[in-house]
Amino acid sequence: MLIFLVGLLAATLRVATPLIYGTMGELFCERAGILNLGIEGTMFFGSFVGFAVAYATGSLWLGLLAAIAAGVLAGLLMGLLTVSLGVNQHVSGLGLTLLLTGLSLFAFRLVFGTNRVQPSIPPFPQIAVFGSLPVLGPIFNQYLLTYAAIGLVPVVWWLIYRTSFGLKIRSAGENPEATDAAGVSVFRVRYLALGIGGGLMAAGGAFLSLAQLGSFIFGIINGRGWVCIALIIFANWIPLRVLLGALLFGGVQALQLRLQASGAKVPYELFLALPYLVTIAALALAGRNASAPAALLKPYRRE
């Protein structure tokens, strides 16, 4: 039983890693007043770009940097649509997801063809920190990107709540008119938030292709972007609660995989739906008291 729990905790951290990156990226966007529904496509795009560059160069780190750069460009494109042009944020985000998903699939077929043999690369290795600990050692056998994701949480909290830049982001999402009157460019702040957010989202997607799988498949994101949208509401736009939400979903996802492997006589479709049902239930309970940024979804135009 103890070995089962240790394995479950280790898997929970790995499953939660892309969710932490994606939800933290969405937090930057929404704190600045922009709902970025392009997160699913941005994660997919980052996953493809990271894999393609790593495959071509043989460097996983170059692949990761390329993925982050691609995510930043995706965030800036979202900024062009919603900040500069004032297009509806729902339409812009969904359009961005469709564009980036289709572009990734087209480029994948263009670069790798339609061979039956799936291209792959040696992924990032796991690092055994405190691996010598008896019994509990496997919990700390994680990817470097997983440790970075956990360390990202307090960094984002400090940036959002303890720096002038974080104050500008929160101000742009709460009262852009007052922000502009104080001499701060709302457009610049929102562009920066979208760029940072896009880079983090793409890093979450790249984790899947560069670390967890070592390959790129068409269903690699599998709705994780939409889960991040739910997690940001569950977390009430607070970084520390984002970690809790990601671990909750990751734990249920890891549990259902182990229940399937155990041969339990339950339809496997129920196991597949279990993490999403738990997410919906948690969102229904926590969402009633959620307090979104006041200017979220509202385009800003200077008088």
Architecture overview:
With 303 residues, the protein is mainly α. It is built from 11 helices and 2 strands. The chain has a two-stranded antiparallel ribbon with strand order 1-2.
Determine Rg (CA atoms, Å).
19 Å
Helix coverage percent: over 70%
Low-confidence stretches: none
Q: Number of domains in the coordinates?
A: 1
Question: Taking all residues together, what is the mean pLDDT?
Answer: 89
Present the secondary structure layout.
Elements (H helix, E strand, L loop, with lengths): L1 H30 L7 H19 L2 H25 L4 H24 L13 E3 L12 E3 H19 L1 H11 L1 H6 L4 H27 L11 H11 L4 H23 L6 H19 L17
Antiparallel strand pairs: 1-2
Helix pairs in contact: 1-5, 1-8, 1-9, 1-10, 2-3, 2-4, 2-8, 2-9, 3-4, 3-8, 5-6, 5-10, 6-8, 9-10, 9-11, 10-11
